[in-house]
User: Which sequence fits this backbone?
């Protein structure tokens, strides 16, 4: 069974807060990982890829722990516009095009 | 103009109807996908095409039939659907099978 697990939330945080999301995946052969963002009633869009060494894009930091089969996303200095559902995505095993999505973690940033 | 266009945006059909969803990508990508999004469930990959060849079929019921006539167009033919098939059907494309997915806005399907 293909499983990508996320805490569904919702995470309700004040502006300026730091928030972290976690994701676990069950296929140890998976090689590529991503975080997508989906706004309410909109289509998902790529937020960032996740690299083995960890990577940062402005206020967003993604980490990968292959041994624990665990991915994280850290958002610093949250903005109201960060409110969305964050989807963990895994390219399954050695497959081609088999991108498996988690259920998503909902974030709500309040004034 | 959006990179991936889906029509119709909304569709209501009876269980005995036959209808089709259409997807067109204007990005010059080589891979196209159909996903199903239901409430409280993760996006479910249905079909993957690369260079018009199907490369993935995740045990989707035969009442869903994909067609990819060229690298820019993808169809999902629907027949004798069930009410539990009501969902948002999202089309996506990517440059290759390992790249970023670009989604259309989806077709909201209701089966009565």
Assistant:
């Amino acid at each position: 069974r293909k499983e990508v697990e996320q805490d569904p939330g919702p995470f309700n945080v004040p502006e300026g807060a730091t928030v972290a999301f976690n994701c676990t995946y069950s296929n140890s052969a998976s090689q590529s990982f991503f975080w997508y963002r989906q706004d309410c009633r909109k289509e998902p869009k790529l937020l960032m890829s996740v690299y083995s060494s960890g990577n940062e894009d402005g206020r967003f930091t993604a980490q990968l722990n292959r041994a624990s089969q665990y991915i994280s996303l850290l958002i610093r200095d949250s903005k109201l516009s960060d409110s969305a559902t964050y989807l963990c995505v895994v390219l399954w095993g050695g497959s081609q095009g088999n991108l498996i999505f988690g259920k998503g973690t909902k974030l709500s940033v309040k004034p | 103009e959006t990179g991936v266009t889906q029509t119709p945006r909304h569709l209501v059909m009876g269980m005995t109807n036959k209808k089709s969803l259409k997807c067109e990508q204007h990005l010059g990508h080589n891979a196209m996908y159909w996903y199903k999004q239901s409430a409280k469930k993760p996006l479910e990959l249905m079909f993957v095409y690369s260079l018009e060849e199907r490369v993935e079929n995740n045990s989707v019921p035969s009442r869903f039939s994909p067609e990819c006539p060229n690298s820019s167009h993808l169809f999902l033919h629907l027949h004798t659907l069930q009410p539990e098939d009501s969902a948002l059907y999202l089309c996506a494309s990517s440059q290759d099978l390992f790249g970023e997915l670009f989604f259309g806005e989806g077709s909201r399907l209701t089966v009565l």
Notes: Residues 17 and 79 of chain B are 6 Å apart (CA to CA). The two ends of chain B are 32 Å apart (CA to CA).
